[in-house]
């Protein structure tokens, strides 16, 4: 196993998925801090959505968690794992033989960090974003070279 190569056991394991190109090192640090602060075995990056969400009952759609009411509470939010970041304690990983342990905390991420390249359409969007950023930086470099004249 890869981790057995280390002389000292690590305290935590952080996995950042390549499919989420806008993850930042600050977000990884935040995940490690969340693991410690909440004494969790695992931390996953999530987005929150208060819905409403519906489940098909076989005959009709029925709102889950009574989300068709006008009031909503945080406890009625559903969280979706996104952003490709998972952090776990090494002891929890050894105990459960997986990254998601029994006590899981979450790291709420924004749209940028939660953007995944999981389809051809998303890949095309990603390429356009990268090209746009390149053009912005090129424009800045052109302005700087003009200024030095």
Automatic annotation (TrEMBL):
InterPro entries: Nucleotide-diphossugar_trans. It comes from the Bacteria. Keywords: Transferase. Gene3D superfamilies: Spore Coat Polysaccharide Biosynthesis Protein SpsA, Chain A. GO terms for molecular function: transferase activity. This is Family 2 glycosyl transferase. It comes from Nitritalea halalkaliphila LW7.
């Amino acid at each position: 196993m890869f981790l057995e190569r280390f002389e000292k056991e690590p305290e935590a394991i952080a996995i950042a998925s390549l499919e989420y190109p806008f993850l930042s090192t600050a977000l990884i640090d935040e995940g490690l801090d969340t693991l410690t602060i909440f004494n969790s075995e695992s931390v996953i990056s999530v987005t929150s959505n208060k819905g409403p969400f519906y489940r098909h009952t076989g005959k009709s759609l029925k709102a889950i968690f009574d989300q068709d009411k006008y009031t909503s509470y945080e406890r009625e939010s559903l969280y979706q794992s996104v952003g490709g970041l998972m952090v776990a304690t090494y002891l929890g990983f050894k105990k459960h033989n997986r990254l998601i342990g029994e006590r899981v905390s979450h790291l709420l991420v924004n749209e940028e960090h939660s953007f995944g390249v999981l389809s051809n359409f998303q890949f095309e969007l990603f390429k356009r974003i990268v090209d746009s950023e390149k053009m912005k930086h090129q424009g800045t470099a052109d302005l700087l070279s003009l200024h030095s004249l």
